[in-house]
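We treat protein structure as text, and this decision shapes the records that our systems exchange. This encoding replaces a full spatial description with a residue-level series of whole-number codes. Below, we set out a record of this kind in full and without editing:
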Amino acid sequence: MPARLPQRVPQNAPGDFYVQANRCTRCCMPHHEAPDLMNDPDAPFEECYFRRQPQTPDEVVQAMNAICVSEVCALRYGGRDPEIIRQVGPGQSDYSLDETPLAEAASEERKVIHYTLPQPSSRFRWLAILFLVALLALIVILCAMH
């Protein structure tokens, strides 16, 4: 059975660096590492993606750094350059150093956990507001004393 490579976010620019579909948490950490390569984080988006591929050695370093800071390992390298594979690690590359495709089944499957935080009760909200008002009053009194 041939290796099944990860599905890419459709908006990814064609090339070796990509974001795996259904993994992005919109943390925007990769955007800070490769702002010219990633999508615009200020525009609405569902998943991040490489809007263009690196063209210079500096941009390749930026793309590798973006892979390294991805919170949920959503960014990947799909090329065969052994130096890049070594630097990003085999878990973030579609190929091993001997150019064998890495099957998804062989890699450790990461589970995505979705959760929602409970809404605070109205009593908690009122206590928080009361605390903030008391704190503000205390600041005003202290400022008036000086």
